[in-house]
Amino acid sequence: MIPEVPREFASYAPQLVTLLVLAVASQRLRPPAAIGMEYRRGEGD
By the 8 A CB rule, do 31 and 39 touch? Predict the structure, then answer.
C-alpha cells in the first residue's frame, strides 16, 4: 500500500527534483581550475 503524499509536497516535488539534478550536475561539470588543477587542453576527462 502506498501512503498518501501531502498536497503541499506534491506541488513542490518537480522543483525539488530539478534543484537536485542541477546540484549534482554542477559538481560534475566543474572546470579543473575551480578545484585547483592546472588545465591542459586534451588531457583528463
Answer: yes
Answer yes or no: are the C-beta atoms of 39 and 32 closer than 8 Å: yes
Distance of CA 6 to the CA centre of its chain: 25
Please, are residues 25 and 18 in contact by the beta-carbon 8 Å criterion? no
Q: Quick one: how far is CA 29 from the chain centroid? A: 10
Residue with cell 498518501: 4
10: left (phi over 0), alpha (psi -120 to 50) or beta: alpha
pLDDT in tens, 4-22: 878 888 888 899 999 999 9
